[in-house]
Amino acid sequence: MMIRADHAVPSRSGILHLGLGSFHRAHQAVYTAAALSHAPDDWGIVGVASRSHAIVDAMHAQHLLYSVATVSPSGTSLTVPGVHTGAFVAAQQPDRVVAFLADPDIRVVTLTVTENGYSYSPATQHLDLDDPTLRADLAGGHPRSTIGQLARGLQVRAALSGAPLSVLSCDNLAANGAHTEKLVREFLQALPGGEGQEALAFLDRSVTFPSSMVDRIVPATTDELKTRVSALLGARDDIPVPAEPFTMWAVEDRFAAGRPGWEAGGAVFTDEVGRYEQMKVRLLNGTHSLIAYLGALRGSATIPDAIALDDVAAAARAVLEGEYEPSIEVPSGVDIRRYEEQLFERWGNSALGHRTTQVGSDGSVKLRQRIPEPALQALGRGEMPHLIALTVAGYLSCLAPLPGFDPGIHATAMTDAARGRLASFAANVRDGRELAQRVITDLQLFGTELAHQDAFIARAGELVDTIRQRGVEVAIADALAGSEGRMLETSQNTRQEAGR
Ligand code: CS2
Q: From ligand 1's centre to the CA of 4, what distance in Å?
């Protein structure tokens, strides 16, 4: 039996998507399917994987169809969002990426290339001109970086048709639209002999980069899920995507050449995307990192196992309410108490099997989005963010364990581009304090401003030593005691001020 889509697959392509991973297939694809079943239109999606053949081959073997399994303790339900009209690997067919970007039928480009995919240097806060891939893209030839592909495609589009286009980042980055636009412009400006000028003028006239906040927890698929989904579907599906019931998409409505009616799937079009992004990246993602590192150190394989531990739940609650929430402006219409309760329900979804190893991976690029700003705000108010310091300590304990300390199998399995550099620091320092100093100040892993916060660095380092010498439970208790003391002080000050 063949897999059948829930509705007619569009015959023409209007969207080019870069980053054909599970998240895209359970998020934008599902919203696009809802839009098309509401109002059929030419918004088929051509999906591009950057290097991996596996997903592209499997998609073709299944006529570009796959199921999304919405998984919760009350059961599994399936949808088959038949919206893809093509799939290929950029590394194999780089010209094709440029050709699609130049094709006037393509009116929207969406991106899920992860925090790693933007060739951005946090040290210079510009395009990373030290990155060899990017340098090769600037020198000519087939572009291999995402920014190089976008810029080269836009150059050809400017020259051939000048048809308007929107580029929509769907990655967990602050102001992701403006960030993407800045990097594409920097690439075009860096081209020799004013070669990028025509494309820059085209960008001014006809290209928009709306920002968007995306949210849905999508774990890696498993063999068990493939078997279960195939039985429910009555057809073999080798690439089902598991996802939680919750889903959210807040988008800035600035599209140069139209867009699908994504509101049919529940997307919110708003001028407050920046607030949605802050809320999500700090409250959900920031706390998620804490749960993943503490959970892995406590031996939990999954996020629901970790949040079921009382002290991890207490630490999550304390960082969420005491350190992240004060740093955000809540978007209008959002009930923040309800949003936070939903977060605990989502993390507790035991049927999803979301692994601590998955969330803890790539901390060197993810944490930078999540922790520096709220930590700096707290420090600016004269408060020590003990639980954010504990997040950093958990990260360092998992990824850069000091000699003799075993962080356990879940931490050891975390992948991170900085692992090699972190390991050489860990091998050459006396203790946690020195490790934190080297990583935060010398490596500037969390940006330039946190690098000067000596008290914060000392607190994170002290917690690394506590984890190593006395265990993670003692470190959690210590950080919680610090934060309770701080809250007591704050409420006393508030009372004194009120009494004046
Ligand atoms: C997670 C996110 O892996 C991580 O770091 O925090 O992938 C999270 O599950 C998604 O952003 C949810 O929208």
A: 29
